[in-house]
């Protein structure tokens, strides 16, 4: 019913050696009492150990599974990482442009140079959010020379020119 919910908290404790030597996953499921109206919600969560002395790092990659980028009319790009800092996204508007929804949701200020290269910065903090899924849409159709830059789909290139790239600058600690 509206405004009626139950909250259950659980604490799971793992030995550090378990988290550094194996993959641990857990499934969390919320099953409604009236399954005729609502279906169960479920998620699989991974557990890892992060050393506090490890420096922050963020990466960006396309998450589309198509054999070739030529099979897609738009692209899903994922930023993921740990730590706090600034991600600078750069994309070539001659090939793609960023989703207006993402731009508006995160109040991105985008600059664009005369060659069509667009740049925006995004403040990141994995304590608040450790993943951003961004959609990019084609601006000029499919180019026959398109290919994934590597086996991990880090970027899409056309004769050496990339569609999207990112860089990360870690925040420096400040004393209060």
Task: Tell me about this structure.
With 176 residues, the chain is mainly beta. A four-stranded antiparallel sheet has the order 3-4-9-6. A four-stranded antiparallel sheet has the order 7-8-5-13, with no helix packed on it. A hairpin with a 2-residue loop joins β11 and β12. The termini are far apart.
Number of strands: 13
Largest sheet: 4 strands, antiparallel
Uncertain parts: none
Strand order of the largest sheet: 3-4-9-6
How much helicity do the residues have? under 10%
Question: Kindly state the mean pLDDT as a whole number?
Answer: 82
- Secondary-structure element sequence? HEEEEEEHEEEEEEE
- By DSSP (H or I, 4+ residues per run), the number of helices equals 2
Class inferred from helices and paired strands: mainly beta
Shape: globular
Evaluate the radius of gyration: 20 Å
The fraction of residues in strands falls at 35-45%
N- to C-terminal distance = 46 Å
List keywords for this structure.
176 residues, 4-stranded antiparallel sheet, 2 helices, mainly beta, 7% helix
Summarize the structure.
This protein is 7% helix and 43% strand. A hairpin with a 2-residue loop joins strand 11 and strand 12.
Topology:
Blueprint: H1 16-21, E1 24-30, E2 41-47, E3 57-62, E4 74-82, E5 84-92, E6 96-98, H2 100-105, E7 111-112, E8 117-125, E9 131-138, E10 146-148, E11 156-158, E12 161-162, E13 164-170
Antiparallel strand pairs: 1-2, 3-4, 4-9, 5-8, 5-13, 6-9, 7-8, 10-11, 11-12
